[in-house]
Request: fold
Amino acid sequence: QVQLVESGGGVVQRGRSLRLSCVASGFSFRSYAMHWVRQAPGKGLDWVAVISYDGSIEFYADYVKGRFTISRDNSENTLFLQMNSLRVEDTAVYYCARASDTAYVDFDYWGQGTLVAVSS
Amino acid sequence: DIQMTQSPSSLSASVGDRVIITCRASQGIRNDLGWFQVKAGKAPKRLIYAASSLQSGVPSRFSGSGSGTEFTLTISSLQPEDFATYYCLQHNSYPRTFGQGTKVEIK
Reply:
């Protein structure tokens, strides 16, 4: 069955960096685009970034553009989110999810999330 | 960017009640809308895709309707396990945008 497992979260100081990972299994990872989505404590869901199946196309939310970089390693079935210049407001649970231009697939599977806490 | 306005932000209901949640898009998005259920400590769960298609394994008491700019999620008979927060999401264009959420609480 499809599984997405995030890791790499933790407590980090403002201005520092962190790299999240999402390991995929149960489907052909190299055939699917992938999203990152976050949820700050007590807040709603916010889309963060997407990467195409081959890594050639990326889109970002304005509030992370220039600070976060999404990437992938299809040989390792792994999605990454490099987060630089972290701000207190980046504190959130970060989820990876499968992406597609096809409605049937887009956001159909999500990981359990990894918590990032940015301290001041 | 497409803005998604969801209402109400919260509601109190009893088991067995019919619940309706509304989502409005700032511009037409055809039927490119999904509905998600979020419970504390768990991954979001997709309930509806393409505005009205029921995700496999989701109970039939959940239904979605609408197209263009107006959408609804209906729970026909609320069950104890349905108390959660619900979000709409447009996947018509980037950036993808969610509604603000509707918290469904026990009356």
